[in-house]
Amino acid sequence: MVENAAARAEVLRTRDLIGWAVADPAGATVGTVSDLLIGRDGRVRYLAVKRGLLGSTVLIPVEELDWGEQSMRLNRWRDAEVRRLPPYDADGPLSAEVVEEMGRVHPRFYGPPLHFDAPGVEENPRIVPLREARNFRLPKDAPNPRGWNVFGEDNERVGVVEGLLVDPDQMRVAYLDVDVSDDLFHLREDRHVVVPMEYVELRERGQDVWITGLTAREIALLPAYTGGGLDPLVEQRVEQAFRRRPEPNALPPSHRASAPRDDRTVDLPPHDSRVDLPPPLDYHDDEPMRAPHRDDYPSGAPYPDDDPLRAPHRDDVPPPLPPRDSGY
Fold first, then answer.
1. 164 and 54, same structural domain?
2. Count: domains in the chain
3. Residues 224, 243, 163, CA angle at the centre, nearest 5°?
4. Could you tell me if residue 68 is inside a domain?
5. Minimum mean pLDDT range among 41-50, 239-248, 318-327
6. In sequence order, what are the residues at sequence separation of 6 or more whose Cβ sits closer than 8 angstroms to the Cβ of residue 83?
7. Stretch 301-321: mean pLDDT, rounded?
8. Which of 239, 255, 271 is the last residue before a domain boundary?
């Protein structure tokens, strides 16, 4: 029996935490605690936070929260960043596959702990959507790929182009914003990824976009782009994924030209291959002036006797005449 109900509890029950307010470092309210998620090791892993009356529910790792009196405060994330978290589906199991995917596509929120020198979200990001870039205009003759279908190097469809991301300082289009098809991953969210333009081939005739370097599945598993200025950490992970695969701007395998083969096709050796030549004619020291004969020639080579116009050689000279009779 509790003697002093006003005493500060050191051990909290789940029902004591439900409804606690969650604020960001600036004090802005992010939402309220709606559930606790506990791992099989008995440790609290995430807090489910309900964002407003009609807002979605998101998962926040417990390490990102400072516990206070009847409230919690995020130690790094701001309200604008929490809005980028994927919605949590309480009806589906939080399986190992889902947890792994959360860390891969949302590395800043659910990935391994970041090093102290990891790039952070900047107040003025370097890469921004085209609509947010001031004084940036596409050339009049530049194609507009928004709405075009996107294919990986395995010829499988990834999704459609949602928009363009640009670098205003260099006045160039840096990335495509690709809306990925929903059936390519476990998490139920409207996922977008960014693809560097150096790995993009635009085909205006069919209004298609072909990505070289990654398959459709690999593109779908890139870190998620959650809108606004591009997170430098996401940009870094995307560049690393494409650098693992060489040959940027190469055509997909099915579109590389290949010559038809038939019985007349001959495979030539490479230019640096060694070619075996026939052995030289066999001469001996005891026969320094011996004329070549038929056995000296390699198989298939023409012998001079077969040539009616060949020049005479030593063997053609008739033998000397016998000595004349002394009585002649």
1. no
2. 2
3. 40
4. yes
5. 318-327
6. 51
7. 55
8. 255
